[in-house]
Amino acid sequence: MSVRVLLADDQRLVRESLATLIGLLEGVELIGAAADGEQALAMAAELEPQVVLMDLRMPGIDGIEATRRLRERAPQIGVIALTTYADDESVLGVLRAGARGYLTKDAASEDIRAAILSVASGAASLDPSIQHHVVAALASGPAPPDRPDGAAAGALPDELTTREAQVLALIAAGLSNLEIAQRLCVSPATVKSHINHSFAKAGLRDRAQAVNYAYRTGLAQPPR
Asked: Residue 49: pLDDT band by 50, 70, 90 thresholds?
């Protein structure tokens, strides 16, 4: 079965070029192309895509707001930001809004295909250059090891333990499992166990959702 994809881009030539490219990808079916965020939301409700490729800078409802509304209305639909922008505001803004992927428009066709298939399967997919960009942005304010940033004792969501909340905060700060283990002076296996437990309690599927969750619940503060 091909992955059903909706494209949203306000520039006609770019939209038509991307539509042609996506139509040639194996295992991918382009079911519609929207000219702005409002149209993308309407078409998503009507066509029920599995993945939406979302431009960010569009008139009216921009890509970040459209992503936020789409994730609220249809959380089963994966959103991949496909944009020319790679600044802090764009990257972190759309990831906080619920996007599960981020690609720049100079991405190769196979990279776009791989991202679509990955997000459709429930995983996240970030361009490698964006991963480094996000980690660098978050590294300026990692949570302290004794408590999650912004979360008072006894006020943790979803019955998280203090240690589970700390691990989620450090994920949001861009640390790997090994780095978290070193920071908290525990084994990588213990970190993995905390991640599994916290993901189960909070209904999270991957690290991208964990970052969004940590910001939303105040376990971590996004860089300013």
From this structure: very high
